[in-house]
Amino acid sequence: MFLPCPGESAMPFDMWLRVFNNYLLVINATGDAWPDIHKRATLLHCLGTEGQQIFYTLPHTGDTYASAVSAIEKHFTPKVNVVVEPYAFRKRAQFPHETIAQYVQASCGFEDKSDDMICDQLLEHFLSDSIRERLLLESDLTLDTAITLAAQMEAAADQQAPLKVLLQMPSAGPVIKGVILLMYLILFRPPLRKKKIIQVCY
């Protein structure tokens, strides 16, 4: 059910509609397999009690399944403020425990924003100074390069986090720390590249 009782739905309508369309596919109700009136009735039933009450107050609901979907979508899909959303994106810093990929996907009202604009945004609002410093070393930084390098550094930091915790334990003496470090190098050290053997013919 999309909205069984008053309040906010558990998921955005566009996501719920994808789930509902998958349900229609499972019960073989897509295309002309079912009469349009049956699909419309199924849609309204799955809206839930509160969802149906809202639906019957909406204008331009029509008599077809498509018109019902359109009316519901217009009501439940929030309008994007093309002035506020870009401003909010520019002011938004990376949240703790938010990955680079999640930060890049943050909502923004521009559809025509350039990669350079997003790249500048990342450099300005990265939480990690070390990632920022590493990216600034690139003479021709692109958005793809920034995301790739930042993700690699994030992954490396995640791997090293348990090691740092263990090494900072007061009870860990020099010998134990040495063993921990050795085990870490064995488990996580990248494989050595094989040197190419160049054969010279005389």
UniProtKB/TrEMBL annotation:
Keywords for this protein: Membrane, Transmembrane, Transmembrane helix
Transmembrane segments annotated in the record for this chain: 165-187
Protein name: Uncharacterized protein
Native species: Cyprinus carpio
Lineage: Eukaryota, Metazoa, Chordata, Craniata, Vertebrata
